[in-house]
Structures are given as C-alpha cells and as structure tokens.
Queue: 4 jobs
Job 1
Amino acid sequence: MSPTQTVAPTREELVRRASSLVPLLRERSGWIDDNRRLPDDVIRAFEDSGLLRMRVPTQYGGFESDARTLIDVHAEIARGDGSAAFCISVWSLINWLVGRFPDEVQDEVFATPNVRVCGNISATGTATPVDGGYVYNGRWRFSSGVLHSHWVFAAAMLDSPDGQSVPMTALIPASEIEIVDDWHVTGLRGTGSVTTVAKDLFVPAAHVVAQSDLFSPQSQSRANAAKPIYEVPLLVTSTAATAGQTIGAAKYAMESFLERLPGRKITYTYYQSQREAPITHFKVGEAALLTEEAEARAHRFAEMVERKAKINEPWSEADRIYSRVQLGRIAQLAERAVNILASASGASSIYEDVPIQRIQRNLHAMAMHALTLPDTNIELYGRSLCGLEPNTPFL
C-alpha cells in the first residue's frame, strides 16, 4: 500500500471532537443500556469524528496519537456513556496492536476505512498447525465491541505434535466468527461483550503471530519497527487506552449530581436544601479531589510514557509493574469518587432515568476487569517493593 500523508489533529482538537459527542451519547445512553450494544448513529458519529483513527499507523491515514491524547479523549467519551468509551478504548488498543503485525496483514486490515478491531489476550482456544496456516477452535468471552468490529483478535494455545504449548494470536475477519448472544450483565451492557466461537476455522499463517512476539519489543512490521509508539509494551499501551474512561465516568457523576442538586431536600431531616447541608459539601469536595488525583496520576503516567519513548529508553520490569498499578489506582480513585456521589444522591437515584446508577454500574464493571482490578495490581506493586518476583507474566 502506498503511504498516505496524514496531518494528525492536535490533542486539543481531538478532545474537542470527543466533547462534541457527549450530548448524543447521553441522549442514547438509555437505548445503549437496554439494547446491549451501540446504536448505528453513535458508530457513524465515531467514524465522522476521526477518533477511530487515533491509533492507526500514519501510512494508512491514522494519527498515531500519544498516550495523553488517548487518556483525555477517552475520558470525554466516558462523560457521555461508559459503554461507548469502553468500546472505543478497545478499538484504540487493538488497532495499535495490529500495527505490530506483518505489513502485508496491515495492508489488508487497514484497507477498511475506520476499521475496528477487537479482541483479548486470553488464550481460550486451540490452534492446530496445518498446511498454510492453523485451524482455530475455541470460545472467547468478553468480546467487547465485536458487534461493530471488522476483525477479531483471538488467542489460542498451539496444539502441536511436538508438544509445544504456547499462545498464538490471530487476526480473523469478524464475519467468520460465530456470535453467542450471552451478554446479560449489570454493567457495561452496551459494549455487547458477547462470547465469540471458532469451529474448525482456517486462519492463514500470515495472520497468526506468537503472543510472545507481541509482548516483545521486536515488531513484526518493517514499516512501524522504528516508530517509538510501537516500542511501548502492550500492557503499558493498555493502561493508556483504559485509564481515561474511569476518569470520565467520575466527571460525569459529578456533573449529574450537581445538575440534580438545586431544589432537592434531604428527606426526613430539617434540611430543605441538600445544597446547604455540610455533609453535601464534604462529599462533593472529597469526590472532586479523588477525581482530580486520578486525572493527575494518569497525566503523570502519560508523561512517563512519552518521555521514555522520546529517548528510546527500554521498559524495565519495574516500569511495567508501575504501569499496571497506575491503572488499578486510577480506577480505584475514580470508583471511590462515584460511590461517594451515589451515596449522596438519594433513593430517587435508583430510577433508570437517573444517570448516577448507570455510571456506578459501568465503572464497577470497568474496575473488575482482570487487568484493571485495583487489589491485584496493588498486590503486584507491593510484591515488587518487597523484593519478590512478580506473580504474573502479564507485564
């Protein structure tokens, strides 16, 4: 594919575009929750905004946006709807990951304008070598965004006669994957994170890469190998892609709370105005500080990513552990902020048309993600401080 000259929008412009989508996302949030997917008009708005191109390589018309841009843009989308923010963060991450595949595979994937690639790194299938490729069989849960994706990233354990058992990752057209509509959940309903299934599915060898290669600094792409953005480790990039949505959720909770505040009283007390009650002031102040701390931590992490990329500084094991704990801590701070505001929102806030209950459910689901879960990440960080080896290979 011949190179395309791309003038990437500034961070401020991309954040402005994301902000302009907030009214639409809030208007459609009830539909998103009820229908367990994103509506077509939201997908079109994402396409028109150019936000789906943030982590597409520049030679295919993408922007190769930096970590701070991902965080701030995804936070704005989360101010509109958590499920929409989760999907766009997945597409940002996996589109970036495709940029580490061989160039001929990228030519095929990025030939689709506004391409959306989803998937995860859980190797819950098998890949059997055959002439010219592999036969994939398996089931992959939590396939967020697959209902609106063109390609699926799937990991499977190599089923080889020589006894090798290593995870292999494949790029598969979404049209070839079976969908099991089992996404009946309490949070992030609109992500449509259904189970995907492959049955005796042939995948060409060029579309399959050992998962260890994707975790390695060595890119499979000649065109992208020298770009600093592709030398950042996979799970560090995951932190940058994920952190913003938790911050945006906390900001949305504050906006929603303050919007409902005028005229509300505290039932069964003498307070005729919740706005005048000291307990309200304390809770609003505490939630605001927690959100500010989460955002400041995310921005400081983004500065670390960009500084290391600028001087081509390798990512040590300690750096990677630090990345994991940043994501957990940011989510923890944001969830605390939302829970405080939810606790002060009164019994009427349990109605489905009041945003705080949906924000709280969505953020809880985000924080429960295995790579985000605060307890796991903080324990990992504590182990490293105590001089012990990490208890996970996912760094």
Job 2
Amino acid sequence: MQTIDQQMLTGERALFKRKNLMVTNSIFADGESPLKESNDITIDNSIFKWKYPLWYCNNIRVDRSTFLVMARSGIWYTHQIVISDSVIEAPKTFRRSSGIRLTYVDLPNAQETLWNCEDIHLNHVTAKGDYFGMNSANITIDDFTLAGNYAFDGAKDMEIRNAKIISKDAFWNCENVTVNDSLIIGEYLGWNSKNITFINCTIESNQGMCYMDRLVIENGTILNTDLAFEYSTIEVETKTSIDSVKNPISGKIKAKDIGEIIINDEEINAAYTRYELDKAGDRFVL
C-alpha cells in the first residue's frame, strides 16, 4: 500500500482513481473531486477543504479527520465507508450511498445529509441541520443527538436507541421504525407513517402522531401533547396525562388521564377506541 504523508493536495481530481492508498497528515485544498472513483483508501488525520471529495468510491476508511464547510456534497454514490473520531462541518454529505458507519462523529452543519442511502450505522453521533436522513433505509442508531426539523422523512426499517431528537415534523412518511429509550421534542410528530413503535420514550409534540397506521407507545412519558392521534390506529400506554386526543380511528389508550377527548368527525366511531385512565389511583375504563 502506497502512503502519502504530510502533503498539500491541490487541483481537480488530485488523486483520481487511486487504489490501495494511505493518506495521512495531509490537506486536500482547492480542487474538486480529489478522490473520485477511488477504491480501498485509508485516510487519517487529514483535512478536506473543497467540494466533492469522495464520489463514486468503494471501501473507504476515514479516522481523526475534518471535512470543512466547503467540502460540501462530499460523499455521494460511495459504498462501504467507515468514519470515526471526525468532524463533518460540510452540508449535504452522503447521497445515494450505502454501507455507511459513523462512530464518534460530529455533524454541526448537517442540512440535507444522509439522503437516499442504505445500510447506515450511527454510534455516538451528534448532528444539527434540517432534512436529516431523508428517504434512507436499513438504519441502526445508538447514542445520537439531533437538532433539526423534518428528520428522517420517508425513512424505512430503522431502529434508534438512546437518542435526543429536537425536530418538527420528524418521522413523516416512515415505515417500520422502532425508537427506544429516547427523548423526542417537536410538533407534528410522525404523520403519515406506519408500523412505528416508541418504547420507554419521552415525547412532547403539539398535534403529534396523526394519520398513523399501527402506532405503538410502550411505557411512554407524554408531555404537553394535545390533539394527538387524529385518524390513527394506536396502542398507547403512557405513565402521564395526555392534554387532548382527537378523532382516533381505533385501538387503545392507557394513560394517567386525558384532559379532553374530541370526536367531531361523524365518520369516526368512538367505540372503536378503548380508554383506560388511572386518576389518583382509581382506574376508569371508557
């Protein structure tokens, strides 16, 4: 394996179509697509300063490195890439790529990141930016923090653990998602999604979880949430009170209390939803 050490790499396609290469302590300065069409590349303690650094690549490992803001749209059409102990400041990273594994990675400018990707593993990742994870599939996430609206729109087959997600319109149009031991804050959570399960989660959402098919909440903590579950099929168990529930289609809600149950659509049969309330230690079944 050839090694490039402590080099300033400039110009378009500086290392075009390289194979079996180690790049360490180096700077990718001005010049687009420096590693385009490259395979079996290891990058350590290096800095990317310009656009499109890793397009159409395979089998890439990046450690202790930095993608600055102008390294935007940096990793597209690339497969089997591992990044650890790094900062990706650039937006629009990862598009139509697969086999992505990020560990101890910070994405402070993650707008439109991880779009249309598959086989994604995130561990100890922090991100900030809108439209994160759109239309991606086969995702596993553990120890994750995200601040940014419209997260995971259209995502499928996803499992999340130990996350803090602050995001309006999160998990829209999703399918087959399980979220464990997490905090989710943001209005209009989960609309138009199906097979969504929240286990041991804290949820705060104005008009959240509407138009959902097969929503499950197990051992939940639901705070400051009103007009919930409209036109949804549900199995909800929460330790707390729900401010208001509106026009659920069918299922069960078990809660400490419900401030208001609103049925104002004549096509909704209220008998299809069962309520179990535990007010001051006294159980009521409606």
Job 3
Amino acid sequence: MKRLQIIVIVVFIMVTSCTIDKTDYEAELNIETTEFIEFKEVTSISSGNYTINIEALNGVFYKGYNKIHLKVNNTLTNENLEGLELTFLPIMTDANGNKVSCPHSYNLVYNSTEAYYEGYVVFTSESDSTVNWQLFIDVTETNETQTLQQIITVEEQTNLNLNMTAFTGNDGEQYFIALIAPQSPSVSQNDLVAGIYKYNQPTNEEGIFPDPSQFSYSIVQNHTLLLDPRMPEPSMGNHSSPNNQDLTQQSDGLYYGVVNYTMTGNWTLNFILQDENGQIIKGTEVSTDFTPGIEGAKGELYIDILF
C-alpha cells in the first residue's frame, strides 16, 4: 500500500510539472506565421536620370535574409532600363558613428524575363534610435556612373522560422547563417534552406566612402551544415527526430537539407559547420540523453525557431 502511495505521488508530480511547462509552451504558440509570397515596393529612390523601385517580400525589409528586386526607369520617359551595371551596398551606422555592412549581393543581375535586377541582403539588426541603415546604389550606363542613396527601415523578424545568427569561426573569420525556408513549417519532413556567408577581410587601405572593398561579403562555398534539431522545453526532454538531412550547397549557392518536425512548438536547430575538408568551423555535438523536466542543452552553434 505504501509503495502504491509513493507511485501515485511521483506520477502526480511528473504530470503537474509537465502540465505547467506545457501550458507556458502552448501560450507561446499564439503567434501566427504568415507565409509571404508576393513582392511589394519597399521604397523608391529618384535622382538625376533614374528612378529605382525596390521590392521585397511583403514590402518590408526584415532582419535576416531578404530577396530583392530593383526596377530602374528613366525619370523623364518612364522607360524601363535594362543592360545597366547596378551595384547595391547597405551600410549600417551605429550611435558612435561606426559603419558596417552585412551579407549582400553587390553586383545585381538583370532578369530579362521579369524585367528587374535581383539580389539579396541579410540585414543583421533592426533599425532603431541607435542604428541607421542606408542604401548606396550605383547605376552605370555607357561608362557614366551615378550614385543614389536612401535611408531605409529594417523591421524585426517576427517569424522565428526565419531567424539568423552571426559568429566567429574557429578560423577567426566572421560567418553568418540565415534561415530562408520554410516560412511556415508543418508537422512533417520540411525542406530546410539556409544561406551561409562570410565577411571578406579587406586587403587594402580604405578608400573614399563608401569603399565597397571594406564592406565585402561572399557566399561560403562547398561547406556542410550538420543538423541536429531538438525540442528544448523541459516537458519535451530535449528529444530529437528521425530522418533529418544535413545541409549541402546546391547550384544557386544556398544550402539545402531536411528537418523533420514531429510536433509544433519550440525547436532548436543545432548546427556544426564543416569546411570542404571536414574541419569544424563552429559547433559542438549535443548529448543524446533524454532530460525530462530540464531545459534542453544546446550546441555551440544553433538557431531557435517556433511554429
């Protein structure tokens, strides 16, 4: 009889603890994840002979990965201009006047089918009273270059499935990982897409601002991003899921893998970034121990998501 009482008490404590954690966890899920598929105008810049309309998904620049479309018109004739050389340089200025950039495609490519110039930018922080973002766009036509400038606003990324992280690798270089898809995951195997970028340390002295050689970034080539997804809530025991696939680079430069979400909730994507020779740039393995009632451990390199 005494043994039965002890068992009942233990079960009661476990259920109560799990219920408390689960209630808090459910409250966090009152976040709607909207999938944006339509490009809308974020801002328009007019100067001299040119008007540039800049478009992004939902018509907003968000912290993290943003695909961009630029349409360039002749200001006088409103003619859409193709065959131009177009460069795109975002600069952030902090409260102390320090200037940095972020991963971006400097030379934009013209899409003749859709009649716009395309590229990407990975904003590393939101705009606020201490952070100011400004775009510098050079338009070159028949060997004449004109620079257009525009202050922009970068909004907080409320969709945690599109989070990003920045870190210094074991090689001393600065890296960035930005989640791109899925915007709206499902309880199933999801195609996971990420961009991996690196800051290019300048090899020459700074020239006239904004000198692009001081703000250069590149896509990391031929690396592997090992994936270990976990549910870190105490009630979940930091369990993982089967049938995940590590991320490898495809022809578009992005990294593709598979993440299997077995239920909705808080997930941590633990990563280990390896170079083309299998050397670890950043990241550590996470213990496979099941730890109910304890917040799950995370590796050295991770991104939290929620759906």
Job 4
Amino acid sequence: MNRSRLLRVLATAVAVVAMGGPAACGDSGGVGGGKDAEQATDDGQPVTLKYWTWFPPEATVREAIAGFEKDHPTIKIDLRIFEAADYQKQLPLALNGGEELDVVGVQVSAMTNSVREQLRPVSEWEKNLPAGWRDKLAAGPVRQTEKIATDGKLYSIPMGSLGSAVMLYNAAMLSQLGIAVPTTADELATAAAKVRAAKPDVTPVVFSGEPYWQEEMLFTVAGQTNPTLSDDVFASRKPWNSPEMVAALGQYKSLFDKGIVGTDVLSLKGNRPAELFTGGKAAFYVDGTWQSSLLSQASRKANKIDLADVGAAAFPVVAAGGKPAVRSYAEGGLAIPKTSKHAAQAAKFVEYMTMGKGVDIWGKDLVLVPTSKSYHADSSVLASQAARDGYAAVTVLINSAGSARDSNQGFLNQVEGNAILDVLRGQSTAQAAADKLQSEWTSGRYTTK
C-alpha cells in the first residue's frame, strides 16, 4: 500500500473500510533550539503546549488531551489537527519557518528525514521520561524509527505500527460450518472447499487484485520462510531473481494452483474485497492491520455491518517449515521540535500518548497497533474471544516482524505489481518474472536504497 493510502487510513481511523502515503522536503534551516529550549524544566508553572498532528482522529485526540490535562493541571494543550496530505506540506514549512511548536506528529517512514533537522533528538529530552522508558515499548518499532533517520538518531517515539498482510475471518460463519481457523495453506484449502460446498454464493478468500497489493501478499508469503527477504531485496543485498524470490513467487502462485484463491479475485479493486466480506459474501478477507476495527462489535454496529463476530489471524503458512509472518512499520510518532521552550512538559505529553494512559484512549480505534507493551484492548472494545485472540495475534506479529513494510513506489507501480500478477495468471513463470524484476531494478530507472 502506498503512503498516500496509508495517510488517508490514519486520517479516517473510525472508518471500517480502509481507503488505505512521500514527504514534502524543505531546507533544513537550522532554526530553533537555544538555551531556553535546552534549559526548560517542569517547574510547576502553567504552560500551553502547541501540538500539531494529523492522527488520531480529532474526537479521539481531544479525549486523550482531556485526560492528560486532568492529570497535569498546569499543562494545557493547544491542538491543531490537519488533513493528512496537507500536514505533510505544512509541518516542514512551519518548522523551517521557525514556528514555535512543542509536540508534533511525525509519519515515521515518510516524514522523518524531511523534518529531522528541526527536531530535538530523543536523547536530548529522554531525561524527562521514566527511567527505563524503552523497556515499556516494543523494541522493533523503536528500532525502525531510529533506523529510518539518515543519521541513525531517534527523533520521535512511535505511537504504533501498521502491518500486512493479515487475515480477517467471519467467525460466526466458520463456527456454523465447523471450520477451525486455518494456520496452513492446506488447512485453508480444506476450509475454502467447505465454504464453497455449503455456501455457493460466498467467495472463500478475498483480497485486492490491484498491483500494489501483490507486493504485500508476496512478501508476507516470502517472510514465512525468509523473514528479512523484503529488506534484503529493497536494500539490494539480494537480487530480485535470487532463489528465495523465485521460490516465494511460486509459493504465492500455489494458492491459486490449489484452488484456495480463485483468479477472479484478481479482478477485485478498491473497496470491493471489504464490501464482500462485510456483506457476508466472503469467509476470509486478507488486508492490513488498519482493518482491525472490524474486530469491534461496536464499530461494526456503528457502521451498519451485519456480521455477528469477526476474528483475525496470521495469513496461513504456505511452505513447509515456515512460520507466521508480516511486514510492519512504525507509523505515527511524536517528536519535540527545536523551537519548543517547554521540552520537559512536552516530554510528559509524549510519554502519556506513547506509553501512558493516553494509549488506552486512542488505542480503542484499532488503527495502529500500539508500541506500548502494556496496552491490551478491553472487552468494551473487543467483545468476543475470536476478536480478542485475533488482536493479540496481530500484535505479536507486528512487534516481531522480520522486515519493514516498505516499497519503492515507482518500481512497484510500473513493474513489480504487474510482474507478480503475470505469474498468478499463468502468463509468466516465476523465474522469468524474477529475472525481469532484477533487470528493471538494475536498469538505473529506479532509485534503490
């Protein structure tokens, strides 16, 4: 999924059907900082923190702010919330222009390097965080957030992550048909056959047939036996026509060869896969963790989705000896700009939203999987055992992912997605497609990392 889709997902967190983003660049400028910012302390004097973000949705973030202000009566938050696309333009302009902001949301993968020179490294203000604060957070997302910066420094603390691909399922339908949640491709094949026999009008497995989604599926399958293959290929540590990539293409195609997924699924576009699932016309729906709101009975009711119960699981393991896998990336992070004169108080708010009680407030939207280790969605959010087990499984997958959820958008849109589709439709062999991918990747037409 490209970055613009991701940012729209985060901007409309309460929507069940995710619409599912490259950052604006600016001169580093070197503004801000100075003694006031360095020496700011929490001395009990009333302060107002200027907070800019695009996520969570306004109703959610205002609820979290209200909770913070109640716990910290001398600190007020002046919120300005933006539309996602506008935010990526406005934040760099504001920071480069010297706007005095205290806390800013950062879309980790797309924005870090366009604004980092105007941000205070976390090492400068972590003294205002609890001792051992890193132990309160999943290590993977923090490491990704640190690694994405070209100088290797940590500039924001990640609120949570997104990942793909995972499998949502109609828990009520599976229970009715006596189908256990499949963990392997063979079990999924058996489940699909039962669904077809009992409900001919239901498509067993649906996901997007659009080119962008084929990368998600391919590297989910590849990660089950080679967890870092996606990272290795995009960093050119391994070629696109390596034996591992050829094998992964073949394994993905085997889902179609075995009749688990019909080639008609490849014609599904836009929201159609979600519509089929939420309309009770699909048993299994493969998408990203941004669709986790489907696990919430309250959310389904609010969005008029007539599904009695929904669960989630890792996508079934395709190759023998594989393990469940997902690619994930830290998404929304919080940072303190150099222009802030209230770094100590700003750090308290960052703590509250990333590892404190604020996580319990915004986490209920089920858009990002919180980085905080202490977060567990309660029964008011996840009413059924299938939903609770599913969300727990997704959390484990996200925080132990082997590869980052990253892409080269030009390559994906122009070459990669369609090359994978050619294999699935029997129009190319896995080896020929892999050779084409490698040839194009090294052609000089695409920027490699």
